[in-house]
């Protein structure tokens, strides 16, 4: 069995909204209504232009690709994907907190980073 890693999309240089829904859907190989459904149930939250047009970033696209991989390749249903992605986000937050605490401990001990 192939290993799959779940990478929570992070805010970075790829978070600039740039793709309208039709382009994003075509990039992902899905229908626009599927992206609207994912938004409606809270899986993804695209940015909006001043004219209220949905705009998707590279991070959004990567996130939906990960979602599709879980569903298509591993057979996980949408409810399971939501749980997996929520857990991945929580783990990512915990890892960042652990790293911050380790840095604090080093500083308190007078160790150089």
What keywords describe this structure?
113 residues; mainly alpha; Multidrug-efflux Transporter Regulator, Chain: A, Domain 2; 2 domains; 3-stranded antiparallel beta sheet; 58% helix
CATH class bucket of the largest domain: Mainly Alpha
- What is the domain tally? 2
Number of continuous helical runs: 4
What is the annotated CATH architecture of the largest domain? Answer: Orthogonal Bundle
> Which structural class is indicated by helix and strand composition?
mainly alpha
Number of strands: 3
- Backbone shape: extended
Query: In the CATH scheme, what's the topology name of the largest domain?
Result: Multidrug-efflux Transporter Regulator, Chain: A, Domain 2
Give the biggest sheet: 3 strands, antiparallel
Distance between the termini: 40 Å
Overall pLDDT confidence: 87
Q: How do the strands line up in the largest sheet?
A: 1-3-2
Low-confidence segments, ≥5 residues, pLDDT <50? Answer: none
From the alpha-carbon coordinates, what is the Rg to the nearest angstrom?
A: 17 Å
SSE ordering: EHHEEHH
């Amino acid at each position: 069995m192939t290993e799959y890693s779940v990478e929570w999309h992070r805010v970075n240089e790829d978070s600039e909204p740039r793709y309208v829904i039709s382009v994003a859907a075509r990039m992902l190989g899905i229908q626009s209504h599927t992206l609207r459904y994912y938004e409606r149930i809270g899986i993804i939250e695209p940015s909006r232009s001043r004219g209220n047009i949905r705009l998707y970033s590279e991070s959004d696209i990567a996130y939906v690709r990960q979602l599709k991989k879980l569903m298509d390749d591993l057979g996980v249903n949408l409810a399971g994907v939501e749980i997996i992605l929520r857990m991945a986000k929580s783990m990512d937050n915990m890892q960042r907190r652990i790293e911050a605490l380790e840095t604090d401990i080093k500083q308190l001990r007078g160790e150089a980073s």
